[in-house]
Batch of 2 targets.
Target 1
Amino acid sequence: MKNKGEWRHWNDLLRNSEEKKVKNIRQMIVPTMDTVRTFYLLNLSIEHKRPVLFVGPTGTGKSAYVQSYLMSQLNKEEYMAFFVNFSAQTTANQVQDIFMSKLDKRRKGVFGPPMMRKAVFFVDDMNMPQREKYGAQPPIELLRMFVDHGYWYDKKDTTSFVLNDIQLVAAMGPPGGGRNPVTARFTRHFNLISVNPFNDETMTRIFSAVISTYLKVNIHLYIQYTKKVKRRYTEYN
């Protein structure tokens, strides 16, 4: 009915999306129901300034989806995107140094991106840092301090400073295989989105698109090479 909400299937949005031409197949993101759903929810979270966390097994495309969105679909005039990769050796000091190297000093005791812009930090493999003696993960606790209170302390003189216009987007896999459980005191701030393994229909669509693109690129190169060889042969004779 007019002026009434209605339910729409994700495939309706998929029909409106187009596969972008890429030179490197490894950088190719094939539009599927999963990509449409992920991009929509990510855009909604960033638009409303809500931290978002993607959780799923390795190989489900969490990082690729977020990076593709931040690099190609995010409004560059309003947002700045930064990427931070956690590992087992990541420390809280390293995280603070990385964040502060991307921010400007707005005034005394206040840091943030350039005025009239917002910074989106994508933290990949968020649950990789090792746990200390008492079970805490210092890099996670540092980020939790920012989300809880909005400020950090200067490492030199211990004075506090405020962080403005910063939003977190994160991705991680389930605990196990070097990954650790993340405290609920931190994850409670996020909109958690589960990324499931691909089903048969999605796998078929992805591989079909990749093979089709590969053949189109290589056939085009083969035709050009053949024409070049024929031209040289004609000139030689």
Note: The chain has a mean pLDDT of 84.
Target 2
Amino acid sequence: MALSFRSLSFPDDRAVAIDGGRRVAWGEFRSAIAARQPASSTRRRVLLDSTSPLEFAADLLAALANDHVAVIPPNFQPQTLAAFAELTAPLDVPPQTIELYTSGSSGEPKCVHKTLRQLEAECNVLERCWGGLAAAATVIATTPHHHIYGLLFRVLWPLLAGRPFDNTTIAEPTALAERLRVAETATLVSSPAQLSRLHQLLDLAALPHKPLLTFSSGGPLGADTAALYQQAWGAAPIEVYGSTESGGIAWRRRDQGLHWAPLPQVQLANDTDGALLVRSPFLPDEAPLRMEDAVEFNADGTFVLRGRLDRIVKIEEKRLSLPEMEAWLSEHPEVGAAAVAPLTLSCRTVVGAVVARNSDADRNPMVATLREHLRQRFDNVLLPRRWRFVDALPFNERGKLAQAEIARLLEAAP
């Protein structure tokens, strides 16, 4: 039977989640949803800002049950939530829609609408691919629930399939061991950055229980890291490639091959410049979606990723719009103009900033001030790790920012 929100008729005593050491039953969860039903039936946009996956899920289902638009902010930073303090009424948005935000190339977060049809279609594909292997395992996660990957893998897919999910977002290696002990049988939802740290701080083979499945998304997983998990847990993590706009596109497991295989029902092609074109039931219509990733196809339909074609970069599996950070930096009164660019430090991709400043403030206080300014809108991991201050940004004869000169400034010794 296809997974659908219309058929969430699991027994009241069946576990929907684990909260700490407590088992939360579906009967209790249904009561929480009912308690969130608004007095007014007028359609509106409802901000989902709970850091608890269980409360978030109840808020989400209550909003969708009343045909409201569920708004999921890009993060829970103060400046971001302040921007969502007053939500306008939904206009021309279909019932049962979820509104997500991701970094856009224009410098502002991009709104992406997902209907239940799209999300149910993707959950059905996930169940088709891995439901048999996941069995009744509890879903535990190191990834947050307010991005599309966490939303699907740790909340919606478990809800629809009737598998319990853990209400704890694992932040420390010791917490992973504890959550595996509580869950006993688990599926782990994680990311390359988190998986690369876990094995450095934890003896994977000595854990009380090993996950049945491990998922990774947000960027490519290193071959050495994949091999370590294969040795310790019997299989390499399943890597999933996709985006907020596209949903899931392809998958791979490095112990089975290096190339990406399209998910069922996903059709792929190349644009004229090598960019990936995607058609799938996870999209709003049958028109192809262009990804800004260059790909090279193999004869069997698998493919290799060849890098980004735009100014969106990934830092620790978090997407960052370079124009958005530049625009926000430039709003600070002591900044005349700013340019940010990725660079490699100690084998890690980080961001560097070149700032034309409006004051003669000393360097260290200025860096601290600008980092605090950025922290109001961006996660700490995205903040620039290298700063350069200049009288004016370098422009070429056509009036365009000289990116090569920006790179030279950031790579040069201070």
Note: The longest helix spans residues 116-134.
